[in-house]
């Protein structure tokens, strides 16, 4: 294994020469493949009943499992297209799992693309509150939007901004913030050898400056009493303990919190800070030679309360609701009669022929670069309404009046995902027609329009199943 000499030296001083040998040995072991169940769509118990593959629990993550990536291909199964799980390296499941989220929270994921953590944060909101998922890279933010839509998360903002630009809009707005920072990726050397070359171009020093700026910007958007989780997939103290140390120095109202432990977790290294601080032992380091996952660092922090106890949780600021003032277009209200879920009409916003269902209590976002605000319900076309793929993924089967439910081994499922027209003469009568929600084993995949026992395919073309 050809590791940069400077990296080797630092790892030896971090681990000691003997343990460093254990670390090197794990480069010869196979990588781990992980799958995280989308609990917004299916419980872990139900998923285990229908899982097409043997799964082994990731012991420190409630909804995380190992699978055999050499023989199983969960990304090529209809359940993946139904958004029932996310494929994620097991250690990378830790940050979102250890940030406590309650339905109704306002949550910000500052560096969110492609959505490995944001999808879990969104699932735990259970449709209440708001998830703002941001990523500086607008091309990566497109993938983030797709993953959030696939997961069925509708109470979202997908933003693409430099975090400092967001401060005036969201000062002390969020209850929870996750910063999965851009980093030198040392923890991924074992899984992805390309990271070694990247490290040689931009190492810890480069990323540490960026991280300090991101954490201090994010700190200003957290409300007093709120919680922040900082994570990286690297080992270097400059990017881990020292970034946390910097935040604590700049914002003394923050303090480190204990998080739920696991026997393989190592405490953060107090001496790795510029001024050693025992509180840093509350942070967690994950080493690939100590447990079945790649290298990570996770720190959970709380923003101090202000003033006396009665002000501990200042009232949540509310904003004037932007309302669509005119009555809803008839074609939209007709379509919404098929949706069996209480919708608040004042949350429907129509912009440029597109209808959205907006999260509550948003600040005015004019001037922010975004890819999505709210759940895209669909498009108003000439005298008709076309529901969106995002809406199909956000609905549960029982929340739509007309459904076609196919079993995963019915060949029509893959044909539907490929964009083909389906013959449904065995399932529906001649007189049935209109919008149908197509499901696999009870989990929505997308819409189709039925007429004469034939289903016209309305699956989003950009998401179609590609033949290999
Ligand atoms: C470690 S990755 C995030 C992975 C993501 N949390 C996940 O679990 O899928 C870091 C991300 O930070 C983004 N990024 C880099 N600089 C940034 C900045 N200043 N503000 C926000 N995002 C930034 C990168 O585009 C990259 O997508």
Question: How does this model look, in words?
Answer:
- By secondary structure, the protein is an alpha+beta fold.
- It folds into 2 domains: 95-394, 3-Layer(aba) Sandwich (Rossmann fold), CATH 3.40.50.150; 396-468, Archaeosine Trna-guanine Transglycosylase, Chain: A, domain 4, CATH 2.30.130.
- Helices cover 25% and strands 24% of the residues.
- It is built from 14 helices and 23 strands.
- The chain has helices at 5-15, 17-25, 44-50, 78-81, 94-98, 118-125, 138-150, 163-170, 194-201, 204-219, 241-250, 330-336, 389-394, 411-417; strands at 33-37, 56-57, 64-67, 85-87, 106-109, 130-134, 156-159, 174-180, 222-232, 254-257, 266-267, 284-286, 296-303, 348-351, 354-357, 370-373, 375-381, 384-387, 403-406, 422-423, 434-440, 443-451, 454-457.
- The strands form 4 sheets. Strands 5, 6, 7, 8, 9, 10, 11, 12, 13 and 16 form a 10-stranded mixed beta sheet that branches. A 5-stranded mixed beta sheet has the order 19-21-22-23-20. Strands 2-3-1-4 form a 4-stranded antiparallel beta sheet, with no helix packed on it.
- 45% of the residues are buried.
- Residues 307-312 have low confidence and may be disordered.
- It binds S-adenosylmethionine.
Helix content: 25-40%
- List each distinct ligand once: S-adenosylmethionine
The biggest sheet, with number of strands, parallel, antiparallel or mixed sense and barrel status, is: 10 strands, mixed
- The residue ranges in which pLDDT falls below 50 over 5 or more consecutive positions are 307-312
What is the CATH topology classification name of the largest domain? Rossmann fold
Count every helix, treating DSSP H or I runs of 4 or more residues as helices: 14
What does the average pLDDT come to? 95
CATH top level of the largest domain is Alpha Beta
Alpha-carbon Rg, integer: 24 Å
**Structural class of the secondary structure composition?**
alpha+beta
N- to C-terminal distance: 33 Å
Number of strands: 23
Q: Under the CATH scheme, which architecture of the largest domain would be assigned?
A: 3-Layer(aba) Sandwich
Number of domains: 2
Query: Could you give me the name of the CATH homologous superfamily of the largest domain?
Result: Vaccinia Virus protein VP39
The coarse overall form would be globular
Strand content: 15-25%
InterPro entries: Methyltr_RsmF_N, MeTrfase_RsmB-F_NOP2_cat, MeTrfase_RsmB-F_NOP2_dom, Nol1_Nop2_Fmu_2, Nop2p, RCMT, RsmB/NOL1/NOP2-like_CS, RsmF_methylt_CI
Organism: Ruminococcus turbiniformis
Keywords: Cytoplasm, Methyltransferase, RNA-binding, S-adenosyl-L-methionine, Transferase
Family: Belongs to the class I-like SAM-binding methyltransferase superfamily. RsmB/NOP family.
């Amino acid at each position: 294994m050809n590791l940069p000499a400077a990296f080797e030296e630092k790892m030896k001083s971090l681990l000691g020469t003997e343990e460093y040998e254990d670390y090197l040995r794990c480069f010869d072991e196979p990588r781990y493949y992980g799958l995280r169940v989308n609990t917004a769509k299916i419980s872990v118990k139900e998923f285990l009943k229908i899982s097409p593959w043997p799964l082994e629990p990731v012991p420190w993550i409630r909804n995380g499992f190992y699978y055999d990536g050499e023989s199983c291909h969960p990304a090529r199964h209809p359940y993946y297209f139904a958004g029932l799980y996310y494929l994620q390296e097991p250690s990378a499941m830790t940050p979102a799992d250890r940030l406590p989220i309650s339905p109704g929270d306002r949550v910000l994921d500052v560096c969110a693309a492609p959505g490995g953590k944001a999808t879990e944060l969104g699932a735990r909101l259970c449709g209440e509150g708001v998830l703002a998922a941001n990523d500086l890279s607008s091309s990566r933010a497109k993938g983030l939007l797709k993953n959030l839509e696939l997961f069925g998360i509708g109470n979202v903002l997908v933003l693409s901004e430099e975090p400092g630009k967001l401060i005036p809009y969201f000062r002390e707005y969020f209850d929870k913030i996750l910063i999965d920072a851009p980093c030198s990726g040392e923890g991924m050397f074992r899984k992805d050898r390309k990271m070694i070359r990247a490290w040689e171009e931009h190492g810890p020093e480069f990323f540490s400056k960026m991280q300090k700026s991101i954490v201090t910007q994010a700190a200003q958007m957290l409300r007093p009493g709120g919680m922040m989780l900082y994570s990286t997939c690297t080992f270097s103290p400059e990017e881990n303990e020292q970034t946390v140390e910097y935040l604590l120095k700049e914002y003394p109202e923050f303090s480190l919190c204990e998080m739920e432990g696991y026997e393989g977790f190592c405490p953060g290294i107090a001496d790795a800070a510029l001024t050693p601080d025992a509180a840093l032992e509350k942070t967690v380091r994950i080493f690939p030679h100590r447990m079945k996952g790649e290298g990570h660092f996770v720190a959970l922090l709380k923003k101090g309360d202000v003033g006396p106890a009665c002000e501990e949780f200042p009232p949540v600021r509310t904003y004037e609701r932007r309302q669509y003032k005119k009555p809803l277009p008839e074609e939209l209200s007709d379509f919404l009669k098929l949706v069996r879920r209480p919708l608040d009409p004042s949350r429907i916003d129509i912009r440029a022929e597109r209808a959205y269902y907006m999260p509550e209590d948003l600040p005015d976002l004019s001037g922010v670069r975004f890819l999505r605000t709210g759940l895209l319900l669909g498009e108003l076309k000439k005298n008709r309404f076309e529901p969106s793929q995002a809406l199909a993924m956000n609905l549960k089967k029982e929340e739509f009046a007309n459904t076609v439910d196919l079993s995963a081994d019915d060949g029509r499922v893959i044909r539907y995902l490929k964009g083909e027209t389906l013959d449904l003469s065995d399932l529906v009568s001649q007189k049935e027609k209109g919008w149908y929600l197509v499901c696999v084993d009870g989990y929505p995949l997308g819409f189709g329009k039925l007429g004469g026992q034939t289903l016209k395919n309305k699956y989003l073309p950009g998401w179609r199943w590609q033949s290999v």
